[in-house]
From TrEMBL, chain A:
The lineage of its organism: Bacteria, Bacillati, Actinomycetota, Actinomycetes, Pseudonocardiales. Belongs to the sigma-70 factor family. ECF subfamily. Keywords: Sigma factor, Transcription, Transcription regulation. GO terms for molecular function: DNA binding; sigma factor activity. Residues 6-70 form the RNA polymerase sigma-70 region domain. GO terms for biological process: DNA-templated transcription initiation. Residues 98-148 form the RNA polymerase sigma factor 70 region 4 type domain. It comes from Amycolatopsis albispora. InterPro entries: DUF6596 (IPR046531), RNA_pol_sigma70_r2 (IPR007627), RNA_pol_sigma70_r4_t2 (IPR013249), RNA_pol_sigma_r2 (IPR013325), RNA_pol_sigma_r3/r4-like (IPR013324), WH-like_DNA-bd_sf (IPR036388). Gene3D superfamilies: 1.10.1740.10, Winged helix-like DNA-binding domain superfamily/Winged helix DNA-binding domain. It holds the Pfam family Sigma70_r2. This is RNA polymerase subunit sigma-24. Residues 161-251 form the DUF6596 domain. Coiled coil: none annotated.
TrEMBL record, chain B:
Coiled coil: none annotated. Belongs to the YciI family. This is YCII-related domain-containing protein. It comes from Amycolatopsis albispora. Pfam families: YCII. InterPro entries: Dimeric_a/b-barrel (IPR011008), YCII (IPR005545).
Length: 381, 135
């Protein structure tokens, strides 16, 4: 049984059913039924046209499930308005599903869950495991999301930025659990990039590829964070880096800059350095300037201050930092790093301890605590 | 989404505004309180914000290692001097504001006289998973 094939067909089949007039929730149920049937039947009796088979079975299930008179009347009206069902073109049917699942009426968490379910074809259990919540909770989230979009007209043009935000959230969710959400986000973004010619889709794909390429080097076997400068660059995936750079260059060539392209450009400059000392910090600062201009994001300003510290020395970095709100996440960690480089280990140790206290996740807290401990040990010696 | 722990204390939190021990309430008031908590949890299950809840027994013991080959040391019969956790609920919500709103709502559970207890609940964020994109 080819699970990947099934998963990749799911959104097509779902879209065809919705096109024919099935409401989203009912179509989704029918497709799930058809998938279960496929798992049962295909091993002994593989269809010649898997997609056609799934559409036929799912449509039959949908009809069975909506026998009520009122539903039938509504369906017949809809069918009358719709073009006759036939071999549906692949063109951008799945694309509409992306837009529907990321619809602005949904909360980000609901949009993420619905996208993984309907476009990604993951099971509710897999999504629940990835987000460490009970399956019943995730089932509720997904069914509420389906209800929310059930009245959205399927031909309504979607907002690319919202879709990208959802995929970014999925990617950034990390790699805990059985389902590799980062890999899943890349798979979906690749699909999207193949269907839609948009520079920021390419920018996001490049960003994901470039970060994913460094994944193996980011942590030790026992889960410790390894800072970028100390990573074993031999463990970076050069093939993914090359692909990410290609995708990025094609996007940049279109001269419509967006935040994902700018972020990807920074990631590409890091990936390009054979050794940490060869990093082109001057160019990285320039890209952070672009990023700040595009987004005004305080996080981008903070990262820019660190890059300035590398390009022009720790004093310049501290001066850039002084213009920012000390309440920003990771402000103390950035200040600690720059003070250490500026030759003030006592201040740095105090700030690392403060940063550890405020760290949002365990590997980061442990890393910052070790930094503080390292400096304090030095100071005692 | 971010997970938060709602900690309910038997003792150790600041005193509630309507601070009457539960055994001094009427049976109807106890039932109304229990129903409020259950309805609250059920509603969070429907909104997809519920993760877990557990009640704890009031008896807690401090325990520590006392050296190789020796039995663990426990803290003796002074349990009444400690903070006591009555139970917890874990929620998974979009924002910190939403977590505050839910905690406040739980704190408004009815107590003596059918009036809200106004008890203090402790709200603690979970450590998140490290993000893939940091620099």
């Amino acid at each position: 049984m080819d699970e990947v094939l099934l998963r990749s067909l799911t959104p097509h089949v779902l879209t065809i059913l919705v096109r024919r007039g099935a409401d989203f929730a009912a179509a989704e149920d029918a497709v799930q039924d058809a998938l279960v049937e496929a798992v049962r039947v295909w091993p002994d009796n593989p269809p010649r046209d898997p997609k056609g088979w799934l559409v036929t079975v799912a449509w039959r299930r949908f009809l069975d499930a909506t026998r009520a008179e009122s539903a039938r009347r509504r369906r017949e009206d809809l069918v009358e308005e719709e073009p006759a069902p036939g071999p549906a073109a692949d063109v951008d049917d799945t694309l509409q599903l992306y837009f529907l699942c990321a619809h602005p009426s949904l909360t980000p968490a609901s949009a993420v869950a619905l996208t993984l379910r309907a476009v990604g074809g993951l099971t509710t259990r897999q999504i629940a495991q990835a987000y460490l919540v009970p399956e019943a909770t995730m089932a509720q989230r997904i069914s509420r999301a389906k209800r929310t979009v059930s009245s959205v007209r399927f031909n309504q043009p979607g907002d690319v930025a919202t879709v990208l935000r959802v995929l970014y959230l999925v990617f950034n969710e990390g790699y805990s659990g059985d389902v590799d959400l980062a890999a899943e986000a890349i798979r979906l973004t690749r699909q999207l990039a193949a269907r839609i010619d948009h520079e920021e889709v390419a920018g996001l794909l490049a960003l994901m590829l470039l970060h994913h390429a460094r994944r193996a080097a980011r942590t030790t076997a026992d889960g410790r964070l390894v800072p970028l400068a100390e990573q074993d660059r031999g463990r970076w995936d050069t093939q993914l880096i090359a692909e990410g750079v290609d995708v990025l260059q094609a996007a940049l060539a279109r001269a419509r800059l967006g935040e994902f392209q700018a972020q990807a450009a920074i990631a590409a400059l890091h990936a390009d350095a054979q050794r940490a000392e060869e990093t082109d910090w001057v160019q990285i600062v320039e890209w952070y300037d672009e990023l700040v201009r595009l987004t005004g994001s305080p996080v981008a300003r903070l990262n820019r201050a660190i890059a300035v510290g590398e390009a022009d020395g720790p004093r310049a970095g501290l001066a850039a930092l002084a213009e920012l709100d000390p309440g920003l996440p990771r402000y103390a960690a950035a200040a600690a790093y720059l003070h250490e480089r500026d030759g003030d280990p006592a201040t740095a140790a105090r700030l690392y301890a403060e940063a550890a206290h405020a760290a949002p996740n365990l590997p980061e807290r442990e890393h910052l605590t070790r930094q503080a401990a390292r400096l304090n040990t030095q100071l005692r010696a | 989404m971010a997970k938060y722990l709602l900690l309910k204390h038997y003792r150790g939190a600041p005193a509630a505004a309507n601070d009457v021990p539960m055994d001094q309430w009427t049976p109807e008031e106890v039932s109304a309180h229990v129903k409020y908590m259950k309805d609250f949890a059920d509603r969070l299950k429907r909104t997809g914000e519920f993760v877990d809840e557990q009640a704890l027994s009031p008896e807690g013991t401090f325990v520590r290692y006392d050296g190789e080959g020796r039995p663990p040391v426990t803290d003796g019969p002074f349990a009444e001097t400690k903070d006591l956790i009555a139970g917890w609920m874990v929620i998974d919500v979009e924002t910190h504001e939403r977590a505050l709103e839910l905690a406040a709502e739980l704190s408004a559970a009815p107590g003596a006289g059918g009036k809200p207890i106004h008890e203090w609940l402790e709200l603690r964020p979970f450590m998140a998973a490290p993000p893939c994109i940091t620099e």
